[in-house]
Automatic annotation (TrEMBL):
PANTHER family: BLR7088 PROTEIN, COPPER CHAPERONE PCU(A)C. InterPro entries: LpqE-like (IPR007410), Lxx211020-like (IPR058248), PCuAC_sf (IPR036182). This is Copper chaperone PCu(A)C. It comes from the Bacteria. Keywords: Signal. It comes from Alteromonas mediterranea. The keyword Signal applies. Residues 1-30 form the signal peptide. The keyword Signal applies.
Length: 180
């Protein structure tokens, strides 16, 4: 190998890596720009939910699990009551999603479906968490694998919907088990 090719080889490698990095950066920016326009278009045509979703995730399960749980906090940013009336997931994830709460009956914790939904007053935040309100996924098609994502749609009483893609994570609150 000549001196010339030995000295230029690192330069070609650095230049190649730099152009790959810039290409990825431009691609990410273009994608972010397009997503913002899609988001703006969606909200221009739908009645807005005016509800912000924070800290959302689905709890990872074992491979053969038939039920799963989804947690998040809803913040009503409007000046009127909002009611989360239903939740849905893709059929590839589970047969159905239900809004549940946990109640004490004697010395037993039991889960109940909230068929009337959950009302969120103006400015209020409502947490969906282990041991309280949560979303139950029933009839999982396969286990929820940590590191993957699942699509979830929240439907409100005014006809608006929030489409989310939530990460699957291990539950922060260890030791809480959901049994039906």
């Amino acid at each position: 190998m000549s001196f010339f090719s030995k000295s230029l080889k690192p330069l070609f490698i650095v230049t190649g890596l730099l152009s790959l990095s810039l290409s990825a950066l431009f691609s990410a920016h273009a994608n972010e720009h397009e997503n913002k326009h899609q988001h703006d278009k969606q909200h221009a045509h739908n009645e807005r939910a005016d509800v912000m979703v924070m800290n959302g995730y689905a709890r990872a399960t074992f491979a053969l699990a038939k039920t799963g749980a989804v947690y998040f906090t809803l913040h009503n940013q409007s000046d009127s009551d909002k009611t989360l009336v239903s939740v849905s997931v893709a059929k590839e994830v589970a047969d159905e999603a239900q809004i549940h709460t946990t109640v004490m009956e004697g010395d037993m914790m039991k889960m109940r479906e909230l068929t009337e939904g959950v009302k969120i007053k103006p400015g209020e935040m409502v947490a969906f968490k282990s041991g309280g309100n949560h979303i139950m996924l029933l009839g999982l098609t396969k286990g929820l694998v940590e590191g993957s994502n699942i699509p979830v749609t929240l439907s409100f009483d005014n006809g608006s919907e929030l489409k989310l893609v939530l990460p699957v994570k291990k539950d922060e609150a260890k030791g809480h088990h959901h049994h039906h």
